[in-house]
Amino acid sequence: MDPLIATLSDYWGYSSFLPHQESVVRELLSNKDVFLLKATGGGKSLCYQLPPVHTKTLGIVISPLISLMKDQVDDLNQKGIRAATLNSQIPSSEQRQIKKDLQDGKIRLLYISPERFATESFVKFVKSLSPSLIAIDEAHCISKWGHDFRPEYRKLHTIKKMFPDVPVIALTATATKEVQKDIVDQLKLKNPRIHIGSFDRPNLRYEIRDAGDVNDQILEYLDSHPEDSGIIYCFSQKNTEELATFLRLNSDNAHYALPYHAGLKDEIRKTTQEKFIRDEVRIVCATVAFGMGIDKPDIRFVIHANLPKDIESYYQEIGRAGRDGLPSDCILFYNRGDKGKLMHFIKKDHFSAERKKIRISKLLAMSDYCESPICRRKVLLGYFGEDFEQVPCTSCDNCLYPKQKIDGTELTTAILTGVMNMPFAVGKRKVALMLRGSSSKDITSLHPERNPAYGKCSSYSEQQLMKWIGELIQLGYLQVLDDGYSVLMISEKGRYLLESTGDQSVTFSMPSATEEPVRRIKGSRFADVDYHAGLLRELKALRKDIAREQGTAPYIIFHDDSLVEMASVLPTTREELLEVRGVGQAKCERYGDAFLGMIRPYAVARPAPFTGSSGGAKSSTWYETQTVPEPACFPMRSERMPESVPELQVEPVVEVVPESEPGTVFLILKNDIMPKIHEQALRTDLSDRERSRLLDLLYVLKKTGSAKNWDEMGRFLSDLGVEELAVQCQLHAGEEERAEQ
Ligand SMILES: [Zn+2]
Predict the structure, then answer these.
(1) Domain-ending residue, one of 170, 196, 222
(2) Using CA atoms, how far apart are residues 630 and 217, in angstroms rounded to an integer?
(3) Contact assessment for residue 419 and residue 490, using Cβ atoms and an 8 Å cutoff
(4) Do 317 and 387 have their domain in common?
(5) Is residue 664 part of a domain?
(6) Distance, CA 514 to ligand 1 centroid (Å)?
(7) CB within 10 Å: which end of the chain, N or C, has fewer?
């Protein structure tokens, strides 16, 4: 660990610096004068507090207000940093003790007023202490151009004369350009390093996306930015490797990505970093270990595949994008599950209750940011104490595509009724399946057809319903039982809504295309097609749901080109839908309403902004590539792997090697696992838990290459009732066969 970060972490409990902090600290440590303008709450004081703590020396802080000094001294002492103030309010006996402690080198920071600093005897005393820096807080007070001029600050004019070899840092949060210059001139700073820090980065485009199909979404983004260089931050070491592999495999190496994390050997990490800086590798899938000291100016995107733990980290990580000032993207894939996972880690770590509370509140601020419908810029800068007034900004998803609200009262009633009439409590997905009227084996034990809400929401996709169920949890109509299985319960508020006589209403946010709603993808198989990328995703999800229920492949329902055309021309009636290539009478009858239901809000929200090049969708070349079953590797649900389930009589794990990242394991498996799993899979009395364990095992087998052929995998998955994956395996088997011929 970087020694500065170690000090930061030991005393402040942060794992990373805020913007400007690190460079200011380093400049002071190398004896440079500094001028720092930074918004209130932006961590200015840390810049001068850390160096003396780090070097075990003394820093002098000149501050105009006694109350301010006292707060800072208390705050530092709380952190285990010895600090003191000398002012007229302190009894002389105590002052004597402080002076003695100063001489004994026990104090790291001494806060004093400008008046006292100006007296000759005091200057002499301070000189005898050999301070390592002098900080002038609220430095705008020295300028008569400032809004808060204080005559006593004038006495600081001679500070560089008195202490020519001690670095001086002048800090302020409020200074016009005129005042800035005045401060530097008045204090006679020597070649000062100037830091003017608004937190706004106008060239960064902020966007939060729903994390459904995150890998596919990232792939799609990369397809449309084939030249750009960027970082994709992942939650764990394993995630970085899996994602890098996924991107390589699914792009014919076009998106050649390398993983980077603390578990890799030093040389490998060094090489990866160098390759990235030299543009030999465009994409790095990394944990937060990546980025410190990377000064690559042309990072065009920073993607967070998972939720960061707090806004400070997030801001620092996205801060690596677009240092050259050119437009760059910051995309975060938000998933409430990540929040739960991070919460879990906070709760089980060894920090004090106080620290935990702080970390939890920081995490909540992070997730609030993701869920907020307000300008991202405003929320982000507001967090750092900066007021951002130019709303709407021109480059955040919320300003560019404000979320549409729809009346969700009827839907809410259906969902609540569904939850209430379940024979036992289940999670979101099963509720969604039941509401869609699914006949999936996953819910047979629930006797869904007996539920009055069965099939009441068949025109929405499973994903969409799950999202709305999530909103109902947030709005307090549903509760999640914290038993480790996240099952749903109806709340008091929910009951009240069901019993009320229609005088209550609920609004939902529309499924919005959070990225550019109109996409023209250059240089890819989608050349010349304009379409709503978000809608296309929704349509694909719906198609997947239908296919799963029918035990068939998605392309049997509609080909990709039909969906692209739908997302492009936005048909709103059956007649218009029939115009779409690949939509005949029968399919229109069977699926028309469901697909139209999904398209209509987009057509209403943004009336046909297209350039009419949908004809490109008819090009036949890309269809071939698109129907290849997507996952060449299945995601691995590693957090559930280490435990074995004795009742399954399958003991797959020979050895568990813990990695440094929490929640990930490396498994070595027994050879005879496959027949054993098959045997178990054929059991008719499998519980949900056993079924999900078997699934996990299959993921691992696929991962480790123990499952030799796709046909076999497909059979097993089919036996397990996991039709979706089974179909994918069968398709893959077909692909392989064709390839061999
Ligand atoms: Zn905005």
Answers:
(1) 196
(2) 12
(3) yes
(4) yes
(5) no
(6) 13
(7) C
How many Å lie between the centroid of ligand 1 and the Cα of residue 375?
A: 4
The pLDDT value recorded for residue 190 is 92
What six digits make up the tokens of 719? Answer: 């036996």
* CA 497 from centroid of its chain's CA atoms: 34
Predicted local distance difference test score (pLDDT) of residue 615: 30
User: Are 396 and 409 found together in one domain?
Assistant: no
Would residue 644 count as lying in a domain? no
pLDDT tens profile 478-495: 887 755 456 888 988 888
Together in a domain, 538 and 497 = no
Place of tokens 């129907």: 627
> Is residue 622 located within the same domain as residue 699?
no
Q: What is the CATH number of the domain that holds 257?
A: 3.40.50.300
CA–centroid distance, 374 to ligand 1, in Å, is 7
Whether residue 654 lies inside any domain: the answer is: no
Among the listed residues 175, 87, 163, 85, the one whose alpha carbon sits nearest the alpha carbon of residue 129: 163
Is 525 within the bounds of a domain? Answer: no
Q: Please check whether residues 390 and 370 belong to one and the same domain.
A: yes
Task: Determine the distance separating the centroid of ligand 1 and the alpha carbon of 173, expressed in angstroms.
Answer: 23
Of 153, 125, 131, 126, the residue nearest 62 (C-alpha): 153
Ligand 1 centroid to Cα of residue 377, in Å, is 5
CA of 381 to the centre of ligand 1 (A): 11
Same domain for 486 and 602:
no
**Contact predicate 703/696, CB 8 Å:** no
Ligand 1 center from residue 425 Cα (angstroms): 40
Q: How far is the CA of 395 from the centre of ligand 1 (A)?
A: 6
What's the 392 CA to ligand 1 centre distance in angstroms?
5
Last residue of a domain, one of 349, 383, 400: 400
Cα 206 to ligand 1 centroid, rounded to whole Å? 8
- Distance of CA 174 from the midpoint of ligand 1 (Å): 24
Q: How far is the CA of 378 from the centre of ligand 1 (A)?
A: 7
Overall domain count for the chain? 5
Range of the structural domain that residue 274 is part of: 204-400
Expressed in angstroms and rounded, the spacing between residue 37 Cα and the centre of ligand 1 is 24
pTM (whole model) above 0.85: no
437: DSSP letter: T
Instruction: Enter the tokens of residue 666.
Output: 């490396």
pLDDT at position 667: 40
Give the gyration radius of the chain's Cα atoms. 30
Q: Strand (E) positions, 198-264?
A: 204-210, 230-233, 257-260
Per-residue pLDDT, 665:
35
State in Å: Cα 402 to ligand 1 middle: 9
Q: In angstroms, what is the span from residue 530 Cα to ligand 1's centroid?
A: 24
Do 503 and 474 fall within a single domain? Answer: yes
Task: Give all strands (DSSP E) within 71-173, no chain letters.
Answer: 83-85, 109-112, 133-136, 168-172
Residue 552 belongs to domain with CATH number: 1.10.150.80
Whether 224 and 355 map to the same domain: the answer is yes
Residue 382 CA to ligand 1 center (angstroms) comes to: 12
Distance 390 CA to ligand 1 centre (A): 8
Q: Which two tokens stand for residue 600?
A: 């209509």
Q: At 411, which CATH number?
A: 1.10.10.10
Question: Torsion-angle region of residue 483: left (phi > 0), alpha (psi -120 to 50) or beta?
Answer: alpha
- Of the candidates 212, 366, 238, the one whose C-alpha atom is nearest the C-alpha of residue 660 is 238
* Cα 388 to ligand 1 centroid, rounded to whole Å: 10
How far is ligand 1, taken at its centre, from the CA of residue 563, in Å?
31
Give the Cα separation of 52 and 28 in Å (integer).
10
- In the chain, which stretches have pLDDT less than 70? 39-42, 67, 145-148, 173-177, 292-293, 295, 384-385, 404, 474, 482-486, 502, 509-530, 553, 604-741
